[in-house]
Amino acid sequence: MTSMPHDPLTVSQAGEDAVVEVLRRVIDPHNAGRPGLFLGPGDDAAVLTCFSAQTVITTDTLSEGQDFRRQWWAGSPAKEWPQDVGTKAAAQNLSDLNAMAATPTALLISLTLPPEFSVDWVRDFYQGVVRACSQTGAQQCVVAGGDLGSGPEMSVTITALGEPREKGRLLKRDGARAGDVLAVSGVLGYAAAGLALLEQSMKPVSSEPAAHAWEALTGIAAQCVAAQKRPQPPLTAGVTAVRAQASAGMDLSDGLMRDCSRLARASDVRITFDDAALAAEARVLEPVARQLGLSDSVCRDWVLTGGEDFALLAAFPPEVPLPEGFRRLGSIESGPAGVSAETLGTHRGWDSMRSE
Amino acid sequence: MTSMPHDPLTVSQAGEDAVVEVLRRVIDPHNAGRPGLFLGPGDDAAVLTCFSAQTVITTDTLSEGQDFRRQWWAGSPAKEWPQDVGTKAAAQNLSDLNAMAATPTALLISLTLPPEFSVDWVRDFYQGVVRACSQTGAQQCVVAGGDLGSGPEMSVTITALGEPREKGRLLKRDGARAGDVLAVSGVLGYAAAGLALLEQSMKPVSSEPAAHAWEALTGIAAQCVAAQKRPQPPLTAGVTAVRAQASAGMDLSDGLMRDCSRLARASDVRITFDDAALAAEARVLEPVARQLGLSDSVCRDWVLTGGEDFALLAAFPPEVPLPEGFRRLGSIESGPAGVSAETLGTHRGWDSMRSE
């Protein structure tokens, strides 16, 4: 079975070995010259070189229906859907390593596909993974291998490995102290606003053709859609934070409120947001709210509870100047562990197990 | 949200944090005292201690419908289904490490569950994972963490990490040489025979009550069902093989024919099976064929193409006595890479991407 540059076969017609051959043509050139991969795909397991005394490791799954809908790419070139899914699946794991101040060294990818998916889809997906590994902060990361399987729904689980970078120091959740400044690097609420744009564009509109309005978006709205489809976490922010003496940190995957509550509980501190800072974050998103015909108040919801921003939250001692890329969100105080509730309403954040 | 020893809540009712609390009660006692886990579940990523200069890593997914059916456990105590799925998901990954002569050090688990699954199911699943890590050869393996998600189908992806054990030597696929002896440790065809028993028991039988006949099985039939539901790979065989100068090896996950073809291609050798050895392997399974009302010839199919045996295949130089636990299957010869086809018919083996 040979596979052409544009392979019209389905993965079921091609079979596992031919699909592996196609994806190797994407990942082998990426892996070449990167020193971390001692033995690449093709044996029972991959073998990585350990450069330090610790390995930082995380895993995350992305599923069609649960995490994205293919209709979000209706009207886009065919390769964008698999490329964006590959980028997002990799990025959410790279973000977890960033949140520990670790440098990514390797990804392992377990891909489950319905039998009618094309071999081209797999190639484009891996191109999206490689794109995520080309971001500053992830450039030493190899794609070490994985597993291919068949199932009724597309899903992918990526495991990411990294090594502590800055003298072995880790950015943990439990070190924040009263008096610290709470700061963030990366966008807030963009992915939630992008989700709202994508979902709204799928609703039938009686008076207009069923065009996919987000294709014509510009400015902040286009950035929000991109943040949802192919996030770009600030992958050097974790190491930057540790170098700047950050006392604690984590990435924002389930929404600012929910994730801040976790950091507050882990550190046994109280987090109080600056109202002006939250207002400034929300204000940026107001053009999107207007485009959707929604009140400006929805922007604060996006900022406080929107998931998948993959921004980096960190606490810094008060005497330390915030490093480049970080902006102040609030302060760390003593008191019952949690997040100050003034002006926050009933915001809760994303729970991966709950049906909404 | 507190979780009682027997939690009647669904995962959707309980929410992610409560489910994590329950699974921590299973894995924390297992992890305690094992030196490999520097930072366990609860932060953005886990941190493992590296004891050697290399990490061996593999990943595999198990999905309901594709890899098992819950009806296989109809009539069994409720905990057996999740426990067996946990054991099997872990075992298939531990087997890949065994196949590299690596000692397992850590598992990462990404579990996707339909919202109506119970919190108890998650607890029992993790008990099954811990059971697999209690097998000889895996006893230093920690459960480092993972990810919980919701989806329409139950699936689990486990990533397993290990370290080369015997002076850093790896058991690769590409070292077999003409003159070597082909040998195996572990069972052949048992998982396929067990699958046939489980599938047959689900067919409605007009003249009898719809009892689950496998509950009453004994002897070889019971062993075959167990091999399918909760495999026990020979987890010390990889290190044993390397100590005995094995030139190549791999585990049998897609069937003897298919996996031998891969080893033959990787080593550029020809594999010829001993007919008498295959016949002896098949003969063991004849009581199962008779129980199913099938001709004895099906036993050879099970041996040659049955997947999921997780036995260890290895090639040894002719002058070396086969180590304990290994039995001879054939020989390695020069010639066009492949497997000798006499008496083999059209046997092919399992392809994870093809619809059968």
From TrEMBL, chains A, B:
It comes from the Bacteria. Substrate binds at D67, E308, W350. Mg(2+) 2 binds at D60, D96. Mg(2+) 1 binds at T59, D60, D147. Mg(2+) 5 binds at D254. It catalyses: thiamine phosphate + ATP = thiamine diphosphate + ADP. Mg(2+) 4 binds at D44, T58, D96. Residues 337-356 are annotated as: Disordered. GO terms for molecular function: ATP binding; magnesium ion binding; thiamine-phosphate kinase activity. This is Thiamine-monophosphate kinase. It comes from Nesterenkonia salmonea.
